[in-house]
Design brief:
With 206 residues, the protein is mainly α. 74% of the residues lie in helices and 0% in strands.
Length: 206
């Protein structure tokens, strides 16, 4: 039994043509993408206004499609954008699993649209697309991974900054500083009522 025939330069040409055609459908795909995300979880709409979601999804999808057919040695703009998106979503508070789901969902939509644009009409183009399946999904996986890593790094940095700020507030309270609003900020940061009985335990440093 023969192995799968490798992609050729002609395959890349056909794939590039299919991707160029698909770019015209990006607005339609983004509309469907956001509709599916909203059906999956209302949190997307709670974290980001629809217009901002649409603009960012449109840019990410357009860059992703262009990357699929770009020369092998081209800069990975899709990964750069995914890292930026991961950092933004961490700051905005979107759960990581929803970020990853958004990338996967967009990947399925783009792939289905590519197949739909060739199936039943151009067998040669469809065959070339099928030989690119692994490459296309590897790109989607890499984008989701880049976004996730940037998200986790940003989340860890935000947590570290919060811990440092809370420690500074506590130190100021224990030192008896009388800065206006200090007690209120410390209470809010610790999720405690501003007024109430508190016990303070001090350990002697050895």
């Amino acid at each position: 039994m023969g192995g799968r025939r490798p992609r050729t330069g002609h395959d890349w040409k056909l794939l590039a043509e299919s991707c160029t055609t698909l770019l015209e459908r990006v607005p339609e795909l983004v509309d469907e993408h956001l509709r599916q995300l909203t059906d999956h979880s209302p949190v997307y709409g709670q974290v980001l206004p629809y217009d901002q979601q649409w603009r960012e999804a449109e840019e990410a999808m357009r860059i992703g499609i262009e990357t699929i057919s770009a020369p092998r040695d081209s800069p990975r703009r899709d990964l750069e954008y995914a890292e930026d998106a991961g950092r933004r979503r961490a700051h905005q508070g979107l759960p990581l699993d929803l970020l990853v789901h958004a990338y996967r969902n967009a990947g399925y939509l783009v792939w289905d649209a590519l197949v739909e644009g060739t199936a039943g009409r151009e067998p040669e183009r469809l065959a070339a697309l099928m030989r690119s399946t692994t490459m296309v999904w590897s790109a989607v996986d890499a984008q989701a991974q880049a976004a996730s890593e940037a998200y986790r790094a940003t989340e860890a940095e935000l947590r570290r900054r919060t811990d440092e700020q809370l420690q500074a507030l506590l130190d100021a309270l224990l030192e008896g500083q009388s800065t206006p609003g200090l007690a209120a900020r410390a209470a809010a940061g610790l999720d405690l009522p501003e007024h109430g009985p508190y016990a303070v335990v001090v350990l002697r440093a050895e």
